[in-house]
Amino acid sequence: MEILGIGSRVKHPSFGTGVVIRLHRRNYDVCFTEAGIKPVSKDFELEIIERIEPEYNVSFSEAEDALIKILREWSDVTELIPLGDKWKNGLMILKPGDAALKEKEVPVETFFHKIVMLRDRLRVMEQRINAHKLLSDEDKIDLQQYITRIYGSLTTFNVLFKHQSDQFVGEKA
Fold this sequence. Notes:
Helix content: 25-40%
Strand content: 15-25%
């Protein structure tokens, strides 16, 4: 597969002639004379009118930032999120309504870690939905809205986070 650079001129059987204006991991954005901007898979065999070499002038810090972003979005690796100071060494006590049953004690750090893992897995699910090839845009939007409502249900636990930027955000009015 030949990778095209920005500025490459191509011909598509349905959209006519166009120019590659943006590169993505799996596709190009091509601005066609008649059809406007369309995404075209890199696997699709376009007729190449004029090929421009792709430029890969990426600094080490840009590559490092991209790798960190990819790992966060596509892996189950949990990012280190700090617990609010007032909760450190704290204990959650779950006391059942039935006095005959024993209460359960859970360290706040353990509970918090599970909440953060849940948040990270929701983020991975979002990314997989967005990248899914068989879902329609409408299906993706419906699933995204559902996930946003899940985040909204989890805002109760925001009190545990040290930094507001790490908290859950649901639908905004």
